């Protein structure tokens, strides 16, 4: 149903995900500047992503954050249906897959990164995500999309995917990139097309948020 990659890149955190269900990024991707990033997927409970970030903000330990959320009494009745991943400001990523995770599921971790998925064509997919990301060059967003495309090429989910999303946080209090394809026959290719439009303008939009008087114009009629 979903496969995703969560990474730390210096001071930036990024998530890319795809799914057979609609609007995957709106439900599974959770990021906080200066704190970390997490996904909550497989019969998704978005509050678990928020809880992981709250734990990280409190103490900064990704492994402890995951243990705190999965072991919390309030989650005891449903945690077996969830799949979670999390990356903090230091150390490796961590993953949890409950006993009721759907279909073929797997996860893979590395320093500053974690990939996970369910309803996969095979257990190799998280490793493909990590390997492709590690081998890629370019901006963080570009490397995340390269990894997602590699996972699709390696088989991805058991069935066709219909949504994809990409989000990145950096040194401002909002997502510097937040791109979503909520329903399409080719969501990953569409996401790559969106990124090609967005990326050359990304930093200009940050400057507009920080200092509108000094920011570049939009280049549209009436703009100055």
Automatic annotation (TrEMBL):
It comes from the Bacteria. Coiled coil: none annotated. This is DUF1028 domain-containing protein. It comes from Streptomyces endocoffeicus.
């Amino acid at each position: 149903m979903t496969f995703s990659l969560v990474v730390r890149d210096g001071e930036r955190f990024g998530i890319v995900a795809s799914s057979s269900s609609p609007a995957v990024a709106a439900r599974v991707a959770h990021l906080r500047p200066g704190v970390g990033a997490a996904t909550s997927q497989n019969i998704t409970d978005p509050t678990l992503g928020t809880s992981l970030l709250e734990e990280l903000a409190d103490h900064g330990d990704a492994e402890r954050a995951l243990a705190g959320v999965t072991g919390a009494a309030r989650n005891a009745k449903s945690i077996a249906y969830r799949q979670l991943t999390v990356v903090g400001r230091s150390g490796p990523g961590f993953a949890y897959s409950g006993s009721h995770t759907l279909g073929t599921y797997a996860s893979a971790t590395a320093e500053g990164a974690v990939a996970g998925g369910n309803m996969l064509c095979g257990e190799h997919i998280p490793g493909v995500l990590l390997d492709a990301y590690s081998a890629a060059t370019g901006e963080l967003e570009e490397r995340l999309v390269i990894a997602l495309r590699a996972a699709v090429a390696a088989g991805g989910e058991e069935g066709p995917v219909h949504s994809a999303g990409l989000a990145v946080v950096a040194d401002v209090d909002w997502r510097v990139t937040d791109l979503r394809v909520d329903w399409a026959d080719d969501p990953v290719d569409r996401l790559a097309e969106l990124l090609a439009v967005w990326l050359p303008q990304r930093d200009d939009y940050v400057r507009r948020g920080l200092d509108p008087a000094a920011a570049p114009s939009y280049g549209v009629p009436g703009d100055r």
